[in-house]
């Protein structure tokens, strides 16, 4: 594998079009890149991080000198295998590339221009442009946050964030950490934290686990998922961690940072049950309510989306992982949350499908191997949907909020201000709420508060699914100097 | 915004008003605009007269509405890079002066007194103290709320949001009797088409031709900054772009700070239908032009961009007033990029027509049937 281009070599990396540009070097993108490369495509693999592995296989920076990073990881051998294949391949790994948009090239649907900014933290940023015949979007997911009183106190971290801190920096968010929210990630996070030496007084899950029982078929077809749950369950038992289902953290206590949380029982709709609040002392809270597919690069190009059973939007994909826009594929969490193993399977299908298209060999996608991959994918997707349905946020969660709770942290917009915009000023959706209150206009562009604002905008009793996926034409902030310095003739692709 | 202004002035005149929108308040072009209240970019003529009237009305409204609408009488500054541009600006400003616009020539060495972060070496510019700004979505929402509050006695204001108009009801002589919406019929002797960029569709429901077309514009929004841009600052070519009818892409950066911190950078113009796809070329041009005016912006990040669709009519004048082809039908749309600024004057005129009052200016140039077509 050629390394990231140094400045002298940079122009080579950005010259001729690649057969395939893969955006995101997590499980899905990595598998897609090596699969396509092994089939003979020229492949560029772009990622914001300096290392491959994405969120799931996040590893400590080499400078930390971790001896056994794999100790914190599940299924490490699959990742080690992917890294070996990447090293043996001709894939050009473009690390530290922040993709801000993908545009159509000037030659119709057949060519794409991936615009990225290199360099980190505002130093030495420069615009680069990667041209490709096909694109695989493997941009993963971000964590869904639902606000509650006290969620802005220092010591409250995302559940996925806590996991990432542990994997990449080998640090714990606190010594006594309550894990709360909803979704299968909570168990994994709690067992990692406990294994790394934190006390976890409780795992607080807003849903019941009955949802899984309603779809026994999907569970039976995915025995590895049961095994995973057993491993986490056993680890939690060993560390004396208590799982409280149908409960939620409804308040965080503390002045300078987290000192305790109140955990309340919630009903089926996630409405807190009066008088059930119990205080649990802790110095950190790791909280998350599932994951949201990162689809902005695709929706800016008009790719169709589907509503997922847990109330988010994912890309609508065909049997070979292609989006509704020909020439653009997606794999992994962008097509719906499903985990690392599913992401690898989808990456392999997408990589093969892109190769079949570029090489003009449709037979590649009809091989026995691809048929088997598709069967596995369908099985795992069915399980993921069951899981998603079990953890969909109940509409009653908005009752955790009081009017003074900040919902948008960037612009400090309270739940009260949002309710007023809806009740008194004619806002009916997240966009108008944003225009009237600035909720979602700040630095994170609604990535943190978007789900919550959409629920509040839809008014009392409305479904928790926002009416449409959010659009963010700039996937990451771009300095004006960088935008203005794009090559005029090639801003929208090559002019021949 | 235009519909809100029509409702405001009509309710103030004692009429019963129902505002119907298929979306939320400010869900169309109002929510995608910058909130320009400009006289500086307008040639002497009927649109400038409308703008001057609106400027006065906005000042009054800013006292009646809460400060949250972010009305700022900040003034505009049009700059020229060379002597030829400066001469053209001087000639333009002289003609505007005769029409009632206040202008002040600013020599190159004095530009930095007005805008300390402007690029060096510009030839000069003109300051337009009457130019102002509002936050358009908040202005529309508060105007509607104020319309409801001031409706007194028999007058009433109703807001029906998320309700699409599907037909115009007519009587035996072809006169308007109300509208049909997805949730039923609403009877009224007058219907005002304030559907902005979608005004042609509403006109079509009444079987009349009104060729409103979308003219796309992108706005770039930066991360929040302390106040580094004090006024509305733009280069002299903007005026020519506004007046052009070309379908091709035109960009001329209009740069301004906002009370909330971000700097807004408009304005591109192109006729590409209702296509929201991001145009990298538009962003490149806007960013390059803005950093040419304010070099310090080069290190500032754009965090968002959005597209909006200006309601464009071929002669760049709005359609305001009764439609002689369908008695009872009035139009108040097609203001292109000036709808926020021209809204109060438009609303005042519409209310005046409905109540039979004397109108503040001649509305013949805005005749809705001037484009011919059906009926």
Brief rundown of the structure:
The complex is a heterodimer of chains A (496) and B (375). Chain A is α/β, with parallel strands linked by helices. Chain A is built from 15 helices and 22 strands.
Description:
Chain A: It comes from Streptomyces cellostaticus. Chain A: This is FAD/NAD(P)-binding oxidoreductase. Chain A: Residues 407-454 form the BFD-like [2Fe-2S]-binding domain. The complex is a heterodimer of chains A (496) and B (375). By secondary structure, chain A is α/β, with parallel strands linked by helices. Chain A has three domains: 10-142 and 292-366, 3-Layer(bba) Sandwich (FAD/NAD(P)-binding domain); 145-289, FAD/NAD(P)-binding domain (3-Layer(bba) Sandwich), CATH 3.50.50.60; 401-457, Orthogonal Bundle (Arc Repressor Mutant, subunit A), CATH 1.10.10.1100. Chain A has helices at 10-13, 27-38, 76-88, 159-169, 185-195, 210-213, 216-220, 223-238, 296-300, 340-359, 368-390, 415-425, 430-437, 450-457, 480-484; strands at residues 18-23, 43-46, 92-94, 97-104, 112-118, 126-137, 141-143, 156-158, 177-182, 203-205, 243-244, 247-253, 260-265, 278-281, 284-289, 291-293, 305-307, 313-315, 328-330, 406-408, 413-414, 478-479. In chain A, strands 1, 2, 3, 4, 5, 6 and 19 form a seven-stranded mixed β-sheet that branches. Chain A has a five-stranded parallel β-sheet with strand order 8-15-9-10-11. The radius of gyration of chain A is 23 Å and the shape is globular. Chain A starts with 9 loop residues before the first helix and ends in a 12-residue tail after the last helix. Mean pLDDT of chain A is 85; it is low at 4-9 and 491-496. Chain B is α+β, with helices and mostly antiparallel strands and 375 residues long. Chain B has three domains: 2-69 and 135-211 and 315-366, FAD/NAD(P)-binding domain (3-Layer(bba) Sandwich), CATH 3.50.50; 76-129, no CATH class; 213-312, D-Amino Acid Oxidase, Chain A, domain 2 (2-Layer Sandwich), CATH 3.30.9. Chain B has nine helices and 18 strands. In chain B, the strands form five sheets. Chain B has an eight-stranded mixed β-sheet with strand order 4-5-3-13-14-15-12-16. In chain B, strands 8-9-10 form a three-stranded antiparallel β-sheet, with no helix packed on it. A three-stranded mixed β-sheet of chain B has the order 11-18-17, with helices on both faces. In chain B, α2 (46-64) packs across α9 (339-355). The radius of gyration of chain B is 21 Å and the shape is globular. The A-B interface holds A 101, 103, 113, 115, 122, 300-302, 411, 421, 424-429, 431-432, 435-436, 438, 441-443, 445, 471-474, 477-481, 483-486, 488, 491-492 and B 23-27, 31, 137-138, 141-142, 144-145, 159, 161-162, 220, 222-224, 260, 262, 265, 276-281, 283-291, 297-307. β22 of chain A pairs antiparallel with β16 of chain B, so a sheet runs across the interface.
């Amino acid at each position: 594998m050629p390394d990231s281009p140094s400045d002298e070599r940079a122009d080579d990396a950005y010259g001729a079009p690649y057969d395939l540009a893969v955006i995101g070097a997590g499980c899905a993108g990595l598998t897609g890149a090596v699969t396509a490369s092994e089939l003979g495509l020229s492949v560029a693999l772009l990622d914001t991080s300096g290392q491959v592995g994405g969120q799931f296989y996040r590893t400590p920076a080499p400078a930390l000198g971790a001896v056994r990073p794999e100790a914190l990881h599940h299924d490490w051998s699959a990742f080690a295998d992917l890294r070996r294949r990447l090293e043996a391949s001709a894939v050009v790994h473009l690390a530290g590339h922040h993709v801000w948009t993908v545009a159509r090239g000037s030659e119709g649907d057949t060519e794409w221009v991936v615009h990225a900014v290199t360099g980190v933290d505002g130093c030495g940023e420069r615009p680069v442009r990667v041209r490709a015949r096909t694109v695989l979007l493997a941009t993963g997911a971000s964590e869904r946050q639902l606000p509650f009183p006290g969620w802005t106190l220092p010591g409250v971290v995302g559940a996925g964030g806590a996991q990432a801190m542990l994997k990449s920096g080998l640090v714990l968010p606190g010594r006594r950490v309550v894990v709360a929210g909803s979704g299968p990630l909570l168990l994994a996070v709690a067992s990692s934290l406990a294994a790394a030496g934190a006390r976890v007084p409780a795992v607080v899950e807003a849903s019941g686990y009955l949802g899984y029982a309603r779809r026994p078929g999907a569970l039976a077809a995915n025995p590895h998922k049961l095994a995973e749950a057993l491993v986490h369950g056993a680890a939690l038992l060993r560390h004396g961690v208590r799982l409280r289902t149908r409960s939620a953290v409804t308040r965080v206590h503390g002045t300078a940072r987290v000192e305790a949380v109140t955990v309340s029982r919630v009903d089926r709709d996630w409405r807190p049950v009066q008088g059930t609040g119990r205080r649990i002392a802790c110095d950190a809270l790791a909280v998350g309510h599932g994951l949201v597919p990162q689809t902005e690069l695709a929706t800016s190009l008009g790719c169709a989306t589907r509503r997922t059973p847990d109330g988010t939007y994912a890309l609508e994909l065909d049997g070979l992982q292609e989006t509704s826009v020909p020439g653009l594929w997606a794999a992994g969490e962008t097509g719906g949350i499903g985990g690392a193993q599913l992401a690898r399977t989808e990456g392999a299908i997408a990589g093969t499908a892109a190769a079949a298209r570029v090489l003009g060999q449709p037979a590649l996608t009809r091989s026995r191997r691809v048929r088997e991959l598709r069967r596995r994918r369908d099985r795992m997707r069915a399980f993921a949907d069951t899981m998603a349905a079990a953890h969909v946020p109940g509409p009653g969660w908005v009752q955790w909020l009081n009017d003074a709770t900040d919902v948008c942290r960037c612009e400090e917009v309270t739940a009260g201000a949002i309710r007023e915009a809806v009740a008194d000023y004619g806002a009916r959706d997240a966009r108008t709420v944003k225009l009237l209150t600035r909720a979602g206009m700040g630095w994170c562009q609604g990535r943190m508060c978007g789900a919550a604002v959409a629920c509040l905008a839809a008014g009392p009793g409305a479904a928790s699914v926002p009416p449409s996926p959010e659009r963010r034409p700039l996937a990451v902030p771009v300095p004006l100097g960088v935008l203005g310095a794009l090559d005029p003739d090639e801003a929208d692709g090559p002019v021949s | 915004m235009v519909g809100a202004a029509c409702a405001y002035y009509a309710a103030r005149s004692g009429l019963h008003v129902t505002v119907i929108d298929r979306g939320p308040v400010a869900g169309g072009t109002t929510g995608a605009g910058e909130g320009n209240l400009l006289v500086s970019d307008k040639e002497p003529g009927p649109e400038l007269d409308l703008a001057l009237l609106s400027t006065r009305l906005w000042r009054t409204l800013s006292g009646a509405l809460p400060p949250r609408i972010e009305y700022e009488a900040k003034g505009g500054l049009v700059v020229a890079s060379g002597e030829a541009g400066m001469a053209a600006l001087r000639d333009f400003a002289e003609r505007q002066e005769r029409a009632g616009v206040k202008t002040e020539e600013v020599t190159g060495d004095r530009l930095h007194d007005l805008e300390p972060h402007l690029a060096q070496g510009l030839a000069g510019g003109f300051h337009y103290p009457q130019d102002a700004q509002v936050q358009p979505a908040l202005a529309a929402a508060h105007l509607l709320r104020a319309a409801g509050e001031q409706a007194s006695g028999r007058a009433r204001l109703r807001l029906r949001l998320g309700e699409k108009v599907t037909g115009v009801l007519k009587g035996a002589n072809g006169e308007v009797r109300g509208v049909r919406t997805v949730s039923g019929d609403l009877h009224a002797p007058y219907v005002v088409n304030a559907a902005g960029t979608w005004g042609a569709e509403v006109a079509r429901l009444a079987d009349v031709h009104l060729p409103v077309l979308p003219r796309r514009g992108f706005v770039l929004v930066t991360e929040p900054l302390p106040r580094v841009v004090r006024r509305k600052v733009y280069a002299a070519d903007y005026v020519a772009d506004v007046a052009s009818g070309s379908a091709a892409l035109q960009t001329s950066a209009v740069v301004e700070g906002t009370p909330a911190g971000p700097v807004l950078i408009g304005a591109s113009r192109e006729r590409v239908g209702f296509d929201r796809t991001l145009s990298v070329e538009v962003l490149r041009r806007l960013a390059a032009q803005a950093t040419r005016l304010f070099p310090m912006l080069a290190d500032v990040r754009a965090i968002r961009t959005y597209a909006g669709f200006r309601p464009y009519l071929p002669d760049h004048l709005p359609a305001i007033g009764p439609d002689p082809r369908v008695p009872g039908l009035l139009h108040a749309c097609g203001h292109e990029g000036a709808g926020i600024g021209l809204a109060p004057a438009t609303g005042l005129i519409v209310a005046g027509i409905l109540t039979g009052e004397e109108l503040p200016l001649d509305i013949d140039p805005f005749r809705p049937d001037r484009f011919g077509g059906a009926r």
